[in-house]
Amino acid sequence: MRDILFVAGEVSGDAHAAGVARELSARGAPFRLTGIGGDDMRAAGVELIEHVEQLAVMGFVEVLRHVPKHWALLHELKRRIRNGNVALVVLIDYPTFNMKVAEAATAAGVPVLYYITPQVWAWGSDRLARLARTITKAAVILPFEEELLRRHKIDATFVGHPLLDRVAELPERDAARATLGLSTNDRVLALFPGSREQEIDRHLDAFVGAARELQRRDPALKIVVSVAPHVSVSEARCPFPMVRSASFTIFRAADAALCKSGTTTLEAAVTGCPLAVAYRTSPITYAAAKWLVKIPNIGLVNVVAGYRLAPEFVQDALQPFAVADALSPLLDPTSEERRKMLAGLADVRRALGTPGAAARAAAMAIELAGPGGNGR
Length: 376
Hints:
Elements: E1 3-8, H1 11-26, E2 32-37, H2 39-43, E3 47-51, H3 60-64, H4 67-82, E4 86-92, H5 95-107, E5 112-115, H6 127-134, E6 137-140, H7 145-151, E7 156-158, H8 173-179, E8 188-192, H9 197-217, E9 222-227, E10 242-244, H10 247-253, E11 256-260, H11 263-271, E12 275-279, H12 283-292, H13 300-305, E13 312-314, H14 320-327, H15 336-351, H16 357-369
Helix pairs in contact: 1-16, 4-5, 5-6, 8-10, 9-14, 11-15
């Protein structure tokens, strides 16, 4: 039995890859599933080569410290690809590493499906030519990506956003609150400071500061903090209740949220939770990003909306009082700001397509791998 090799270098990618793996198993695809990922992929039947927790880094400075680990792992993947037993490589985001994997697969004549492609619309447009040379097909999850990639001779198909597959699982507001021990009458703010240790380090104090200021204005306000399962957070730094692995439940329970920039902002859109977006990184990484990034907004919810739907607080602008001022009207059920944002979030949700992204990506994978394992 030949392999379908998945490479997901981050927690979010692990979840998306697991969805495709489950669909492949459900369809009886005659391949062994192997790869780099995390607990979700393992639970979906993927035999892990390396756990994602060993790889999840961010920023230019942070990546440098992990170069030896990445090169050793890349060497192992190249060996596996060259041995002739890999029918298909499925890449999920993680572009700096995965572009090298794509090149190795192409050199070995192995087809490549890139599911959740690099954000070339934001920065790294030079990667478009590399993608055109090295991937067989792209399954893209943002509505404007298909046209962009096709203009650069990349066979791309918009499959919808995988977050929409969670819509059927969403609890009602009262049920979500009951799960979290909250009253139906509580006013609730959710904090999403990030899923990596370095994100927590840079965001948590400002997030907690904003929440404290809002509680000063409204002492009855309840605060809930979403924490990734593998991240350790000191109670001395975070005095609020922390909940692990329940982001959708938290969003459904909350009246508003403060979110680290990224996919979390689209989770807010899917669940209909008004939000503010924040992001802080190392000074070196930020200086490089300012030079490289070509779009006016960093929050994915704003990128999909096409305008600044949710307020953004980046780097030095991430100040507790300013954030509290932006969130205060979003917590008010009668405010015009909240009404407008709810309407905008509904538009974003519609733009993300329809449920079934993982199923569509799995169908592409089966076609590319082929009965003999060579879809080229």
